[in-house]
Amino acid sequence: MRTITRSLFWSTAALTLSCALLIGFAPATHAQSDDAGKILKAMSDYITNQKTISLSYDSSIEVITPELQKIQFNASGKLMLDRPDKLWVTRTGGYADVEFIFDGKTFTVFDKADNKFAQSTSTTSVDQLVTKLRTDYSVEAPGADLLVSHPYNQLMAGVLDAKYIGRAVIDGVECEHLAFRDHDVDWQIWIEAGSKPIPRKYVITSKTVAGAPQYTLLIRDWKTDVSTGTNAFAFKPPVGSKKVEFKQLSDIDEVPPGVPAGAVQGEKK
């Protein structure tokens, strides 16, 4: 009888602990079905109303080799935005050190490693620049949707399903965790809770590629109302640098040269 009693005690204790764990890790029950869209819209409105933004970021992008091996490449950088027509971005990884500068008239890509740069003068706003990168240069620039004038419209285009997952902590900051789906990708975003709903983490998963490669963006040091200065977006060619065509800038991608042929990287659009 004592053996049976002890067994019942431990079984009951285990069941109680299991229920507590399930309750503790379950998504927040107070969320409504449309909370994801509302929170994303609040983030979009907040970002849109900031004339100047500066931040630091870490990014990782995965590729799937022809042997179906998943490889991840990482980089870090900084960004400064002065709406509507000025942008400065750096990206430094193990294979590339690149600077992107847009002064409202001229867009410059500077390959620091090879001391080469290319320029274009056919864009007049950051929104147009993002479009041009994708259409003319086949540069997807995951995360660029967060920089356009109305991120909500860009992010929600084609969305089939939106979910509020619950609260999470990113880099010590409490965030709202949202998940979205469209035909080609699943994507998640973690938005700081409270009066400053800024994006803290952004993950894109490609559903149409075997192995479901992901792109991850972690955002740090977000600041607004920054003083950009008159020369913050001015590019001055370094001594000995060479101006080339964009197609001659071969080592500026997040994926390094020499990745096995047929590898596919995860992207949003």
Concise structural overview:
By secondary structure, the protein is an alpha+beta fold.
Radius of gyration: 22 Å
Strand content: 35-45%
**What is the H level of CATH, i.e. the homologous superfamily?**
Lipoprotein localisation LolA/LolB/LppX
- In the CATH scheme, the class would be Mainly Beta
Number of domain modules: 1
Helical content (DSSP H or I, runs of 4+): 10-25%
What structural keywords apply?
single chain, 269 residues, alpha+beta, outer membrane lipoprotein receptor (LolB), chain A, 13-stranded mixed beta sheet, globular, disordered N terminus, disordered C terminus
Describe the structure.
By secondary structure, the chain is of the alpha+beta class. It has one domain (33-252): Lipoprotein localisation LolA/LolB/LppX (outer membrane lipoprotein receptor (LolB), chain A, Clam). It has 4 helices and 13 strands. It has helices at 2-25, 35-48, 126-135, 151-156; strands at 52-64, 70-82, 86-93, 97-102, 107-111, 116-120, 161-170, 173-181, 185-192, 199-206, 214-224, 242-243, 264-265. Strands 1, 2, 3, 4, 5, 6, 7, 8, 9, 10, 11, 12 and 13 form a 13-stranded mixed sheet that branches.
